[in-house]
């Protein structure tokens, strides 16, 4: 039986050092100091998912504003040896329960339309389909972040899926916490798809 636990800073660091370098390419992995800074501002809730022996199976790291009603999934991964076993889909009901005070969770997924190769199109479609099977819904909000085109999904928790302008407002607020003003201006371009 899988259970969820909110992680303290030492546990976040331990998972970062032990597992995240394998799961994410260097270009996508923020420096730990950035995570620590957000955590110390009360804007980086992180969760581990453990089996009945208390062994880590998966983890989810979120960015948020201090009092915001939404959190943005920053990193999510199942340990390498457990991928494809169904653990990933079991984490979402646990997140909904654990984060019940939030209106919902935001997720960025690379857009299918911007993929250059058929293999990448298939990978992105599978990722979107996985999140939709877990209860997430596609919105019309999008983001161009570091030159990468993202669609924004919402996992509703306490409220139904909001209008795209609400999603966009929440996303912009979270980006302003994640990035200083100069970096925000250079790399973040949230918008609503026509």
Automatic annotation (TrEMBL):
One of its GO terms (molecular function) is acyltransferase activity, transferring groups other than amino-acyl groups. The keyword Protein transport does not apply. Keywords: Acyltransferase, Transferase. Residues 2-162 form the N-acetyltransferase domain. This is GNAT family N-acetyltransferase. InterPro entries: Acyl_CoA_acyltransferase, GNAT_dom. Its EC number is 2.3.1.-.
